[in-house]
Amino acid sequence: MINSVCLVGNLAADPEIRSTPGGKKVAKMRMAVNDYWTNRQTGERNERTHWFTLNAWDRMADTCERLLTKGIKIAVRGSLEYLEWTSGDGTKRSRIEVRVREMEILTPKGQTTRESAGTRQYADPEPARSNKPVEDHGSYNDSSEMDDFPPVADDDIPF
After folding, report:
1. Coil/strand/helix, residue 6
2. How many Å apart are CA 83 and CA 94, to the nearest integer?
3. pLDDT exceeds 90 at position 122
């Protein structure tokens, strides 16, 4: 099965940064994605805004905290997470959130990013794990599952 989602939109607010009791950092964000279409009968242009809750963990949360601000345009790739709980009054509640695995900042350089990052892509080159920019693109990914593995050198890759 495949659980993958790609979204392009604008942040509704600065990322909200928290830490779990175990010390893992989490960035929670709201993203607005606009949908445009034209009514074929009237020729009227319509717009609808979809709202998504994004969660980024560990190093990706650090990147979000350092670079993202309200209003910037980003592209994210991640997976859908279904959350279910019972509220205080006993009502069953649920929602779907996006766990961010990769992110690209689309806002032009010098416009409303914390470090004026410009257009950069953030994703770990797997299997190598690097926090340093590769050429003009930074490279980060949510690879918390990989934390127990040592870095792999280029010489270890068979191709």
Report:
1. strand
2. 5
3. no
Confidence tier at 26 by pLDDT (50, 70, 90): very high
Closest by CA position to 100, among listed 137, 141, 66: 141
Question: Could you tell me which residues come within 8 angstroms of residue 52 by beta carbon, excluding any fewer than 6 positions away?
Answer: 7, 9, 30, 31, 33, 97, 98
Cα dihedral angle (54, 55, 58, 60), rounded to 10 degrees?
-10
Q: What pLDDT shows up at residue 108? A: 81
Q: 5-156 adopts what CATH topology?
A: OB fold (Dihydrolipoamide Acetyltransferase, E2P) (2.40.50)
Amino acid residing at 155: D
Q: Flag whether pLDDT at 1 surpasses 90.
A: no
- Per-domain residue ranges of the chain: 5-156
Distance CA 4, CA 100 (A): 10
